[in-house]
Design goal:
209 residues; mainly alpha; 9 helices; 66% helix
Length: 209
């Protein structure tokens, strides 16, 4: 595989002048997501992005001071998409156990469809999210969805350790996603994903009653 990501270049040769300020940032993120998918975090660089978009590195630095800032922006997009897809997956808001299953299917489905971004979102490169407050806030949205569903599922049991239960659920769902993404667990086809997740989670889901 070639080390160069092929992107369509604008016919205008005025390089960065063809981008408005916000347009260049969006273009950098789109190209960064594409490059991440092809080359992973190690193969992604600001220099390579500048070459692919036919702009100067100086223009890139006005948006991202370094590679880590770009990675944080890519991860933030990933977390936003994950939370959105989880919300969109809910089929019966009034049934917390079904919500848990729907959210879990969406979570694992997102991981399988966006493997490179998913690895980045939870990778060592961005382990210290305190440096990126908006990323940290966005990263917590998927957990909050699980937490709300677990709290509703256990509302008739006021003494239940809801936070511990949420952690157990998220650990199982995330662990299953990581194993599937890394090929350690056979990943199901799209039409078999719901049945696969239900089977994986059934022992834990049965406790939410």
């Amino acid at each position: 595989m070639s080390n160069t990501v092929v992107l369509k270049r604008h016919k205008n040769h005025k390089h960065q002048d063809r981008y408005h300020h916000g347009d260049l940032r969006r273009a950098l993120i789109d190209a960064g997501l594409q490059m991440l998918e092809f080359h992973g975090t190690e193969g992604l660089s600001l220099r390579r992005l500048a070459k692919a978009l036919n702009v100067s590195q100086t223009a890139i630095y006005s948006h991202f001071k370094n590679k880590t800032e770009l990675l944080a922006a890519l991860a933030e997009i990933g977390f936003q998409q994950l939370a959105f897809q989880m919300l969109e997956s809910i089929t019966d808001p009034a049934d917390p156990r079904q919500r848990i299953l729907d959210l879990s299917v969406a979570y694992i489905g997102f991981a399988l469809k966006n493997r490179a971004v998913f690895r980045l979102m939870f990778g060592a490169e961005l382990a210290d999210m305190k440096k990126f407050p908006t990323l940290a806030m966005t990263a917590g949205k998927s957990y909050a969805l699980f937490s709300a569903a677990v709290t509703d599922a256990l509302k008739h049991n006021p003494d239940a350790p809801k936070r511990t239960a949420t952690n157990a659920l998220w650990s199982l769902v995330h662990g299953t996603a990581v194993l599937a993404v890394d090929g350690k667990l056979a990943a199901p086809d799209k039409d078999q994903l719901s049945a696969f997740v239900t089977e994986q989670l059934s022992p834990l889901i049965s406790a939410f009653s």
